[in-house]
Amino acid sequence: MFRGVILAATTNPGVSRFVRSYGMRMGAARFVAGETIDEAVLSLRKLNEQGLVTNTTLLGEGVRDQATAMAVVEKYEKILDRIAAEKLQTNIALKLTHLGLDISEELASRNLTRLVEHAQGLGNFIRIDMEESARVDATLRIYRQMRAEGHENVGTVLQAYLYRTERDLDDLLPLKPNLRLVKGAYLEPQNIAYPQKADVDRNYLRLAERMLSGDGYTAIATHDEQIIDYVVNYTHSLGIERDRFEFQMLYGIRPQLQLELVKQGYKVLVATPFGHEWYFYLMRRLAERPANAFFLLRNLILK
Fold first, then answer.
1. Considering 30, 135, 147, 180, which one is annotated as catalytic?
2. What is the pLDDT of residues 100-139, one digit of tens each?
3. Which residues 6+ apart lie within 8 Å of 14 measured at CB?
4. Is 180 a catalytic residue?
5. How far apart are CA 130 and CA 139, in angstroms?
6. Which residues pair with 178 in a beta bridge?
7. 3-state SS assignment for residue 292
8. Which domains can be identified in the chain, with CATH numbers?
9. What DSSP assignment string belongs to 93-139?
10. Which residues contact 74 (CB under 8 A, 6 or more apart)?
């Protein structure tokens, strides 16, 4: 219920104005590594120095004109160049709607190809983030197209709360894919997604087992310690090498757990986004964990 209320409120104009005006002062900076690449680089370097690898995202989505989409591509090229110049252990995660998917699938695919090729020349990697269920088919088509064209430095995301995901995984496994597994952060109807957390968790573990037992690379993206412990035990019992998977968590959430896993010898990636368009990202983070929302409310009261 809490999650649904927060996500529904995201589109409310009054809520949007208030959070955009005061969010950073209320503590949104805990979850967003600044609004500029210079600010983000400081956070990325600090995380790397702690033994954590990172990805970064230029926050934004839902671009609806071609010129803006092209500008986003050019910004990402500069971000990739900056990552290389700074010698950061950082790759890129991006949304296809930021590259023009809502204009046309062909435009998003063309823009993504440009970025994947640019990243390949720098020895880097692009992760295609997954968005709402209505965009899953297009996202997976574009991912398959990238792989069919011979691009190995690209991966995508599957969402455990969607009923369809088990079938999608079946289709992708022959590609030996690089997949991130998440629970899911959007508000979806019950005929599309599991409404109960317990069902999502069970499906997450089923999918994780199949990914880890396959020939690809798996990113276990969760802050849920029960799931993390399960994956640790499962991979150990089957002798799955630690270079076949990693844990992924979000910037500003469970940092001590991130460091504990690194000390145990696991690879941990911290998703570290930045940019001026942080509103929708922040609201999804608040919806995922009540503690995140209480953190901002407490800061509002104290300030």
1. 180
2. 999 999 999 999 999 999 999 999 999 999 999 999 999 9
3. none
4. yes
5. 7
6. 217
7. helix
8. 33-277 (3.20.20.220)
9. EE-GGGGTTTT-HHHHHHHHHHHHHHHHHTT--EEE----GGGHHHH
10. none
Q: Residues with Cβ < 8 Å from 11, sequence gap 6 or more?
A: none
Catalytic residue among 30, 102, 129, 201: 129
Which residues lie below 8 Å from residue 302, measured CB to CB, with a gap of 6+? none
Tell me the backbone φ, ψ of residue 269, rounded to 5 degrees.
-105, 135
Cβ atoms within 10 Å of 248's Cβ, excluding its own = 23
Number of helices (H) and strands (E) in the chain: give both, helices first.
12, 8
Condensed to tens digits (0 to 9), the pLDDT of residues 134-187 reads: 999 999 999 999 999 999 999 999 999 999 999 999 999 999 999 999 999 888
CA distances from 2 to 10, 77, 153, 183, 190 (A): 13, 38, 37, 16, 16
Beta bridge partners of 301: none
- Residue 152 neighbours by CB distance under 10 Å: 12
Largest CA distance in the chain: 54
285 in active site: no
| DSSP string for residues in 31-59 | TS--SSHHHHHHHHHHHHHTT-EEEE-B-
Low-confidence ranges of the chain (pLDDT < 50): 2, 22, 293, 295-296, 299-303
